[in-house]
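Chain and backbone:
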Amino acid sequence: MATIADPESLVKEIEDLRREGWIASAEEFAEQAIREKLSAARRDRFALETEKLQQDLSVAGLTSDRLLREFERFRHAAHADR
């Protein structure tokens, strides 16, 4: 398991909250906080990549409406062949 050094002030805050009963486990609290930050970072990365893709598609003259129409046309044609 990796060890992450926390600033002493954060450790003190976490321990104070644990002693007061607000946090059951300092380790679980830290793990959950890290998971939440990682999730937010992944969400931000996805949003940025999606925005870039939309810009690239727009430069190429493709809109979401046009892509949906093309998909529906392809889907109907594929089902008509069955």
Notes: DSSP finds three helices and no strands in the chain. The mean pLDDT is 90.
